[in-house]
Amino acid sequence: MYAPTFGLAELPFRITPDPRFLWYSPQHQTAKEKIVYHLTQSVGPIYLLADIGTGKTTLAKRIIEELSVDKRYKIVFAPSPNLKTTNAFLRFIMDEYGVKTERSYEKSLKNFQAFLIEQHKQGISPVLLIDEAQNMSRDMLVLIQHLFNFSTNTEFLIQMALFAQLDFQPKLKRLPSLLSRLNLAKLKPLNLDETKDMMQFRWTVAGGKKLPFSNDAIVEIFRITGGVPRSIVKVAHESLIRAAVDGTKHVDKDTVMSAWMDITIERT
Predict the structure, then answer these.
(1) Does residue 11 lie within any of the structural domains?
(2) Contacts of 99 (CB under 8 A, 6+ apart)
(3) Residue numbers of the domain that contains 159
(4) 16 vs 57: CA distance, rounded Å
(5) What's the Cα-to-Cα distance from 223 to each of 22, 77, 231, 239, rounded to whole Å?
(6) Is residue 206 part of a domain?
């Protein structure tokens, strides 16, 4: 790979959601602070709506990392709730919290409520983060709404954040009572300056210094990716591979265009 060619300790442009490589644009920072506030202050559930590839999963993992060091929070992460039944989804959540399930759905819910009450007495706040929430069925969303009913007069007994793609919104609109109880945070694609800053940040984390992309190359990356972070990372990665194969330590616009052609060929 190209890491030795450019004197890097590791690869800076991998599409895996490594929280170390999450660059906070102003909107990422705002979304993170808003979500953490809702989770830690028990002011109600929240959902993050984001385009594909804008960093919602990485943001979720960063939040988990930060909250996990505080023993007041017991965190469960549901990465993709596409289980076949609502009962299976409830069992998954309860198993992750270490709560006994029953054959009866209603009895399982009672056990979970008792668990939440006991956690509250001990000063512990269970936190549930659900990624790819757009995969949830209507009945699963109704279950989420039911969990909101587990509360005291002043606070919720379980804190929830849902991370979803844009097609989650139509599902919520068909459940107005649920939608009315959820707070909203958003992520959008980056602009040109943010694209450059994000690339430089990842390059620095990987042990690099000056970003080897020309200004024209960065503009081209922004143009063809539309500012979507995951696409930026993939194009930058392929461009660096091509540069290393060509025996150069500089990435220009032509290199980016060639890399992009390789990517598009792979998709066909």
Answers:
(1) no
(2) 111, 112, 115
(3) 26-187
(4) 10
(5) 21, 34, 11, 15
(6) yes
Length reported for the chain: 268
Take residue 36 and report the two structure tokens written for it: 């953490």
Give the pair of three-digit tokens for residue 266. 């792979």
3-state secondary structure 66-130: HHHCCCCEEEEEECCCCCCCHHHHHHHHHHHHCCCCCCCHHHHHHHHHHHHHHHHHCCCEEEEEE
This model's pTM is above 0.85: yes
pLDDT values of the chain reduced to their tens digit, one per residue, 268 residues:
799 999 999 999 998 888 899 898 999 999 999 999 999 998 899 999 999 999 899 899 999 999 999 999 999 999 876 778 899 999 999 999 999 999 999 999 999 999 999 999 999 999 999 999 999 999 999 999 999 999 988 899 999 999 999 999 999 999 999 999 999 999 999 999 999 999 999 999 999 999 999 999 999 999 999 999 999 999 999 999 999 999 999 999 999 999 999 888 766 5
Residue carrying structure tokens 């023993």: 71
State whether 194 and 182 are in the same domain.
no
Note whether 50 and 145 are same-domain residues.
yes
The domain boundary, picked from 187, 218, 240, lies at: 187
Q: How many domains does the chain have?
A: 2
183 in the same domain as 131? yes
Residue that the structure tokens 């194969």 belong to:
245
Q: How far is CA 94 from its chain centroid? A: 22
244 and 119 inside one domain: no
Residues 137 and 212 in one domain: no
Secondary structure (DSSP) of 145-176: HHHTT-B-SSSBSSEEEEEE-TTHHHHHHT-H
